[in-house]
Amino acid sequence: MSAQRPMRLAVLFGGPSEEHDVSLRSARAVLKNLDPSRYLIELVGITREGGWLRPASSRRLLDGEEVPEPGGPPFLPEGVDCVLPVLHGPGGEDGRIQGWCEMLGVPFVGSDSTSSQVALDKVWTKTILRYHQIQVPSWSEVRRAAFAAEPSATVRRVAQERGFPCFVKPNRLGSSIGISRVENPDQLTHALEEALRHDTIALVEPEVPGREFEVAVLDGDPPFVSEPGEVVMDGWYDYEAKYVSDRAEIVVPAQDLHAATHNRLREIALRVFEVLRMRGMARIDFLVMKSSGRVYVNEVNNIPGFTDISMYPQLIALGGVAFSEMLDRLVEQATGRKAESVLTTPV
Ligand SMILES: Nc1ncnc2c1ncn2[C@@H]1O[C@H](COP(=O)(O)OP(=O)(O)O)[C@@H](O)[C@H]1O
Ligand SMILES: [Mg+2]
Fold first, then answer.
1. 285 CB less than 6 Å from ligand 1?
2. C-beta 236 within 6 A of ligand 1
3. Average pLDDT, rounded, for the chain
C-alpha cells in the first residue's frame, strides 16, 4: 500500500449475537475516534438475523433507524485493506469471522480464529489457564441434553460440587446475558434452564466474594499492560449494572490496591495474553477474594467493549495512548502481519 492512499478499513458491527446493541454502541465510539484523514471507512452492518448490509443500510443500522432490507451473505467491500471487527459474542468475537478473514487473506484487528474461539469459550479458557497454573474459579459443566434427561440429579450433583452461592453462566456469551447468582437448589434449576436457553453448555462456579478488577492489554513489542481498573458496585456486575443503571462505577485506576496485588494482576494479565496466544487487544477480568487476597482470572475478552463508558479504552488512555491512537496501533499491527495469513503460514 502506498503511503499516500488512505487505508480502506471495513468496520464490522451489529451481528446475530445477543450483544448486538452493545456492538452498535462500541462501533459508534470507534467511528468517532477513527481519524478520517487516515482511513476510508467502509461500514458493514450485520443485522440481528445475520444479514450483511450495504453502506446505506449499514449507516441506518448504526443510527438505530429501520433497515429496509434483510441483507445478504458475508461480503467485504472491494479493495479493503483491513477489517476491524467491533462485534461482541458468538458470530463475531468467537473466531468465525476471524477464520473467514484468514481464508480470504485479509488482515483483521485482534486475535486469530483459534485464540478467539478459546477466549469466548469460558470452559476452554479456564481449562487452558488452569493447565498453566493460573488460578480460575472452579467450575462444573452442564450440557443441555444431560440436564434435560436428568434435571434433578444434575442439580444435586452441581449443588454438591459447587455449593451456594454460585454463579450459573452460558458458556459462550458476554455482557452478563443469561447469568444468574444462585443461593439454593430451586434457583439453581431455573438458572440452569436460563443459561441453557442461550447455549448448549452452561457452567457453574462458586462465588468468589471480593473485588473485581480489569486489566487491558494492547499488543506491541512488548505488549502494553495497563494499570488495573476496578468495578465498584452493590451486588454483581449484571447487564443492568453494566449498561442501564449507575449501580456500578468504573474506577480507573483502581484505588487502595496493595502493591503486590497490583503487580500480580498485571503480571497475570500478560501471561494470560501469552498463553492464549492473543493478538491486538484483550481485557483480562479478575476476581480477588476478600478473605484471602487470592487472585482469580474470571474471564478474558478478545474484543472488549469500546463504548464511551467502557473500561478498555479508559485503561489504555491512562497509559497515555488515546482512543484514536490505540485504533491506529491496532490497525498497524493487523496490516503488518498480513504475511501470517493462513494461506501463507506453513502448517
Ligand atoms: N465466580 C464468581 N464469583 C463472583 N462473581 C462472579 C463470578 N462469576 C461471575 N461473577 C459476576 O458476574 C459478572 C459476569 O460474569 P462474567 O463471567 O464476567 O460473564 P460475561 O462474559 O457475561 O461478562 C462478573 O463481572 C461478576 O460480577
Ligand atoms: Mg465479564
1. yes
2. yes
3. 93
pLDDT at 107: 96
Does the beta carbon of 288 lie inside 6 Å of ligand 1?
Answer: no
Q: Which residue has the cell 484487528?
A: 109
Least confident stretch, 135-144, 231-240, 271-280:
231-240
Per-residue pLDDT, 308: 74
Mean pLDDT over 47-70 rounds to 96
Report pTM: 0.94
39 alpha carbon – ligand 2 mean position (Å): 31
Is residue 207 in contact with ligand 1, taking CB distance under 6 Å? yes
CATH of 140-206, picked from 3.40.50.10490, 3.30.1490.20, 1.25.40.10, 3.30.70.141, is 3.30.1490.20
Domain ranges of the chain: 7-109+335-340, 120-136+208-319, 140-206
Q: Whose CA is nearest to atom 18 of ligand 1?
A: 299
Q: Among candidates 280, 276, 273, which has minimal Cα distance to 334?
A: 280
Pick from 136, 203, 250, 298 the residue to mutate for probing ligand 1's pocket: most ligand atoms within 8 Å of its CB: 298
Sequence-ordered list of residues with C-beta below 8 angstroms from that of 109, at least 6 positions apart, any chain? 82, 83, 84, 85, 280, 281, 330, 331, 333, 334
Evaluate: CB of 237 within 6 angstroms of ligand 1.
yes
Reported as a single tens digit per residue, the pLDDT across 306-320 is: 987 899 999 999 999
Is residue 289 predicted with pLDDT exceeding 60? yes
Q: Would residue 155 be called left, alpha or beta, if left means φ above 0 and alpha means ψ between -120 and 50 degrees?
A: alpha
Q: What integer pLDDT is reported at residue 241 of this predicted model? A: 87
The fold of 7-109+335-340 is Rossmann fold (3.40.50)
* Number of neighbouring beta carbons within 10 Å of residue 341: 17
Q: What is the pLDDT, as a whole number, of residue 4?
A: 63
Q: Is 175 in the pocket of ligand 1 (CB under 6 A)?
A: yes
Point out the ligand nearest to the CA of residue 89. 1
37: left (phi over 0), alpha (psi -120 to 50) or beta: alpha
Q: Tell me what the mean pLDDT of segment 115-134 comes to.
A: 97
**Ligand 2 centroid from CA 250, angstroms:** 13
Q: What is the DSSP letter of 280?
A: S
